[in-house]
Amino acid sequence: MIKIQGIKKSFGQLQVLKGIDLEIGKGEVVSIVGPSGAGKTTLLQIIGTLDRPDSGTVAIDGIDTSSMSTRKLAEFRNRHIGFVFQFHQLLPEFTAIENIMIPAYIAGRSTKDAKARATELLEFMGLSDRAGHKPNELSGGEKQRVAVARALVNNPAVILADEPSGSLDSKNKQELHQLFFNLRDKFGQTFVIVTHDEQLAAITDRTIKMRDGMVISISDSDKSEPAAGPDRDSMQEQNSD
Ligand code: ADP
């Protein structure tokens, strides 16, 4: 689903990515970990086509994004990639359901279609009764779940998340992590998650460790059932053994 070859990126004199090669399969939930400044966010932004590499290629679902025009990239991104950030970045003047519908509008979908999809997602997230609430009327965990629903509204193949649970307390954190796996199991999305959260990294399918602009290791989680493991709590226990 994601194929990255030879990605290099510098900001001024600082080489932040020193040649990254990675392949991530459809439906994988992968975490990227490593110390601050390792280049994780830069890599995620490049995968998400929010930034361009100095050299190397990124292909999403077989489509090479490296040579696309800026306008084409924006369209591609809105349809194929969903983003979840540490802070929800919902628009305060719109309700939960309206926030979720915005990327669908941008993609040119009808109000009816956008609303049906947003309603389905809210229901899946257990937030149906919050549809008409504005962000300031939602809890932190609810806001973040609305942000995840917004990322999913166009049914993108790939969801990229940068410290998605970084601003949440431990209960909401666990719920959000569980949600990622539930979504993958239901909709088949590929998740790439930059995180400092060791508990989350431990339950993802693979953990990519970065340091100093390079991938220094890729470890498979030792669970035996790749996609169909609904019981993440017991998995977490296995992994912490
Ligand atoms: P991480 O996510 O692993 O903490 P980042 O990818 O955010 O690392 O940053 C890697 C390095 O690149 C840091 O030293 C950071 O200061 C620098 N950096 C990131 N973005 C920019 C930018 N737009 N301009 C200049 N330096 C940047």
UniProtKB/TrEMBL annotation:
Domain of life of the source: Bacteria
Pfam families recorded: ABC_tran (PF00005)
ABC transporter domain span: 2-237
The protein's name in its UniProt record: ABC transporter ATP-binding protein
SMART domains: AAA
Keyword flag Cell membrane: no
Keyword flag Transport: yes
InterPro entries xrefs: AAA+_ATPase, ABC_transporter-like_ATP-bd, ABC_transporter-like_CS, ABC_transpr_LolD-like, MacB-like_ATP-bd, P-loop_NTPase
Regions of compositional bias (Basic and acidic residues) in chain numbering: 220-235
Protein's organism: Xylanibacter rodentium
Chain spans, region Disordered: 219-241
Keywords: ATP-binding, Nucleotide-binding, Transport
Compositionally biased intervals (Polar residues): 236-241
Single GO term (MF): ATP binding
